[in-house]
Amino acid sequence: MKTYQAIARAFRPQKFSQVIGQEPVVKTLLSAIALNRVSHAYLFSGGRGSGKTTLARLFAKALNCSSSSSDFEPCNNCPSCKEIATGISLDLIEIDGASSRGIDDIRQINETIGYSPTHGSYKIYLIDEVHMLTKEAFNALLKTLEEPPPKAKFFFATTEPHKIPDTIKSRCQHFPLKRISEENIIKKLQRVVKELGGSVENAVFDLIAQRAEGSLRDAEGLLDQLLSSSQEMLTAEKAALFLGIAPGSIFDALDKAFTEDRLVFAFDAVQQITESGCDLTAIFEQLLQHFRKTLHKILCKDPSPYTDCQALLILEYLLKTQSELKNAISLPLKLEAAFLFIIHLHKKMTLEQLVARLETLEQNLLKTAAPSKTATQNISQQQTFTQLKSDSKAQTITSIKPEASLSAAVAPLTAPIAPSKDSLAPAKTVTTAASKDSLAPPKTATAVNTKDQPSLSKTSDKQRIETLLQFAAVELEGTIKRH
Ligand SMILES: [Zn+2]
Predict the structure, then answer these.
(1) How close is the Cα of 25 to the center of ligand 1, in Å?
(2) What SS3 class is residue 313?
């Protein structure tokens, strides 16, 4: 039986061309070899699993390879390459800065650094998590860095470059490594599965990439676990359950509940999620990602059940909620509230939407009314409207009945939003705070009766406009109150 090797190790890049997501760094390192301008100290910084030690080892291999290719890739066949690959090289000394952090550890380096390399051209010291060294250790290291023997090289790797003294940093070439994109992680995982011959649903790669948060090593570790968890086809549903995250279908269901204005979904879904043992904090992260993608879709003019305003409001809400999660009394309740907020947005109008609709309405009205009106009337009508838009203190409106003929003009106000009984149907008595300092003269709506309306007459137009303005005022006031 073949010895099992973890994916991260078995598929570790053996050549620079296999490194993903760090192209600029690879290019610089190769060109340093090509120009024979290799510095004596390098610092690779970046998040976990971004490829710091992988790059350092590859660089060491390329520097010490006795038969590297014309593009300076290591041959992976010479004694030096083989020894580095198996971790037994005497020319690449790997030190864990977290456990060997004292001055004595650095003194040991200083004592051996003068010896000649065995196979390769250089004696290379790779210190991982170098920021963990003590102050005294850094001081001892600094002495060596100031006057390094010609055949010695130092490679440092760290997740926290800001903790390294400036005196050390200034003697290194610093390469900050990028977080590996989800797209690149997915590509690598797909290649691994193709080579291993597993049967994996495509959505599984998305789930792993999301969960790995830019760490290729984490992603490979998760894939390892998932592949050894079952011999059958690995579905997204199974993977989600295994990873403790919500399957993507739950977000599709949320979008549907939003479209249908079905608030009860919030309770059912949260119960289901809690019972399946999902990590609720991870779900908030997934929700954020879902709406980030939704907003991106909207901005690219792709169809979406949400408007840009709604997606922005949801993102704002989720970001705020996420910062409160640590102190939350109940995560399921927080999630329920988030779902309710999202679905309820279906009914809510944002101030921007309302103003846009009022403007459309105004345009439509002016177009309809223009032939029967003088310029002065148009101006005064516009003024009233502008006043209403800027003045949130609406008036007392009683018994407004929309006429059938108004529906065309009202349409833009109601169209994209499903009319709800309580928001758009005329209230019998709407009492609002009438302000004494209000600029507009107080208005009392008169009952509008369709039968009394001679079509297209001046009186009819005036009444129509007034009624519509009153509607607009009620809507506007409601929206402002909600803000
Ligand atoms: Zn070689």
Answers:
(1) 21
(2) helix
Q: Which is it for strands 397-398 and 429-430: parallel, antiparallel or unpaired?
A: antiparallel
Distance 162 CA to ligand 1 centre (A): 35
Q: Which domains does the chain have, with CATH numbers?
A: 7-176 (3.40.50.300), 182-243 (1.10.8.60), 249-344 (1.20.272), 351-482 (no CATH)
Centre of ligand 1 from the C-alpha of residue 409, in Å: 79
CB 197 within 8 A of CB 209: no
What CA–CA distance (Å, rounded) separates 288 from 290?
Answer: 5
Question: Is the separation of the CB atoms in 368 and 405 below 8 Å?
Answer: no
Residue 312, both tokens: 């922005």
What spacing in Å lies between the alpha carbon of 71 and ligand 1's midpoint? 13
Tell me, in angstroms, the distance from the centre of ligand 1 to residue 285's CA: 44
Q: How far apart (Å, rounded) are the C-alpha atoms in residues 434 and 476?
A: 14
Quote the ligand 1 centre to 78 CA distance (angstroms).
4
Rounded to the nearest angstrom, the distance between the alpha carbon of 72 and the centre of ligand 1 is 10
Taking the centre of ligand 1 as the mean of its atom positions, its distance from the CA of residue 126, in whole angstroms, is: 19
Cα-based angle 24, 29, 33 (whole degrees, multiple of 5): 145
Do 450 and 365 meet the contact criterion of CB atoms below 8 Å apart? no
CA of 67 to the centre of ligand 1 (A): 5
Question: 3-class DSSP state for residue 391?
Answer: coil
64 CA → ligand 1 middle, Å? 7
pTM, entire model? 0.64
Q: Per-residue pLDDT tens, the chain, 483 aa: give them.
A: 567 889 998 999 999 999 999 999 999 999 999 999 999 999 999 999 999 999 999 999 999 999 888 999 999 999 999 999 999 999 999 999 999 999 999 998 888 888 889 888 899 999 999 999 999 999 999 999 998 898 999 999 999 999 999 999 999 999 999 999 999 999 999 999 999 988 899 989 998 998 888 999 999 999 999 998 878 889 988 888 888 888 778 899 999 999 999 999 999 999 988 888 888 888 898 899 899 999 999 999 999 999 988 999 999 999 999 889 888 889 999 999 999 999 998 887 767 777 888 888 888 888 876 655 444 454 454 554 445 444 444 333 333 344 434 444 444 444 444 444 444 444 443 334 444 444 444 444 444 444 444 444 556 666 776 776 676 666 666 655 655
Cα 155 to ligand 1 centre (Å): 19
Q: How far is the CA of 218 from the centre of ligand 1 (A)?
A: 29
CA of 60 to the centre of ligand 1 (A): 10
User: 69: CA distance to ligand 1 center in Å?
Assistant: 9
